Amino acid sequence: MNFASCSFLLLLLFMHGHGHGHGHGAREMADDHNKPKDLINHDHDLTSNRYNVLRLPSMDQDRHGEDDDSSVQRQEHVHQHDNHVRDEITDHAHDHPSNSHMDHMNIAEMVFFTLNDLKVGKTMPIYFPKKDPSKSPHLLPREEAESIPFSLKQLPYLLQFFSFSQDSPQAKAIENTLKECETNPIKGETKFCATSLESMLDFARRIFGSKYSDLKIVATTHLTKSSTLFQNYTISETPQQIPAPVIVACHTLPYAYAVLYCHSQETENKVFKVSLGGENGDRVEALAVCHMDTSQWTRNHMSFRVLGIEPGTPGICHFFPADNFVLVPVPAHPYCLGMR
Questions:
Q1: Across residues 262-283, what is the average pLDDT?
Q2: Helix spans in 96-136 (H)
Q3: Facing residues of 291 across strands?
């Protein structure tokens, strides 16, 4: 299978700003006490459910061996993240009647909707986190990534390697990411945490199989510059469904360097590009995925609560932030259509 035509584009996408040459990888991060903290603790929170929201079913399953204190700490970090967008939530509340169902939600959960909502003129509140790519961690070359342990058993060594104290929020973020990556997938799901561009492409090759010669990347694009994270958006054009017999969805995880939680499900999923217009004039070409079979999801999955629907309901959809993406196989194309 030839993925070479897409690799360069992927490299630009995830290693933007990383063109410093040799010597600026993970080991140099470990030598710079300030740099890893900036990389892992920039504008988004460390252990936020924003990541868990989009990783879907696995985070809501009972974690083997996780104690109550870990759960409480995760929730504390979620509440800390809500403070970052409190002003925008307040402004939104002033402009719209209070909704008790929404008032009790974590704002980062406001990404879910149903397939029936995908129609022109539909308005819904959506949270789109934004961050500066220049301050984000970058994927390491495979050789360097494979030289660093990526295992919960190696947590003490990793904290020492990256110069994080054991009780720091960075340490908790690393621990939670490693736990998430080692959690068993649900039935019908294949998951993988990629620490390099090459390992991500290898995973996609295994999922797509030999009948597909290429892939395209589908991601959310912000067409206007704005610091607004949460507002009402209206669908301005008929949503475009992207043919996808199988998909690999990849989501960023908080870590000292870039880690992508990539997964694929055997059940039917539909991929859409959705044109959205915000109340403040923002325009977004948003990636959305709809899951047509949620029967294997835990009853505690947050989407059921957010949407106020019964567990197992089909056609549950969610938007992707700009730093998450979907890989879609393309038969017999010599270039990446999705990046044009």
A1: 95
A2: 100-103
A3: 269, 316
